[in-house]
Amino acid sequence: MQSSQNQQFNQLVCNFNQAFDALASNHYAVIPQFLTSTLREALLAELLQLQAQGLFHEASVGRGLGQTRQAHIRGDSICWLEDHFTIAGQYLALMEQLRQQLNADFYLGLRSYEAHYAHYQAGSVYQRHVDRHKDNNARVVTTVCYLNEDWPIEAGGQLKLYNQNHELLLEQSPLGGSLVLFMSADMPHEVLAAHRSRFSIAGWFRQD
Ligand code: OGA
Ligand code: MN
After folding, report:
1. 2-61+71-206, superfamily in CATH?
2. Beta carbon of 202 within 6 Å of any ligand 1 atom
3. 148 C-beta closer than 6 A to ligand 1
């Protein structure tokens, strides 16, 4: 790992302790400055470049043969991260550190991580859903990292996170560089429409 990345990680470990406590007791946590502004900018630039190359596709809902595009339910376009992407590779390396730390602290048995860049155009939403699929319990912890430079509250696009009883726990603006973590199994959440393009990386630590 490069030394600047190492430095960033050492800094992160301190932030993690607090976040991990929150994750354990509340099932969610927010790390406000997870990314340096340099890494955030580089990720956003890479996202835009991949998009210009036509490597994004419209996300669908459902699984397997039941997959369909239903933009009123889920309106984002995505591109899955690959280790060989120059900048996304750095993000994946950070998440690997996070995975090991989560396993060490919580014995979660997290074995892999998958993530995609996401672009919500103005007006797009993701209606209330749970990330763990009904027929597949692989997803354990959800991560969402936001890439926009600045985000005034009136731009909308909040992530709303609920508990099992559908009581609101968190309403989070997609503030650039911040990371939200929550348990994938039992936390309904939704993305509200924004007045501008909203860029992020959504990912999942998996137990398979
Ligand atoms: C998802 C998701 C939340 C967000 O991609 O499954 O819920 O704030 N994203 O982008
Ligand atoms: Mn989700």
Report:
1. q2cbj1_9rhob like domain (2.60.120.620)
2. yes
3. no
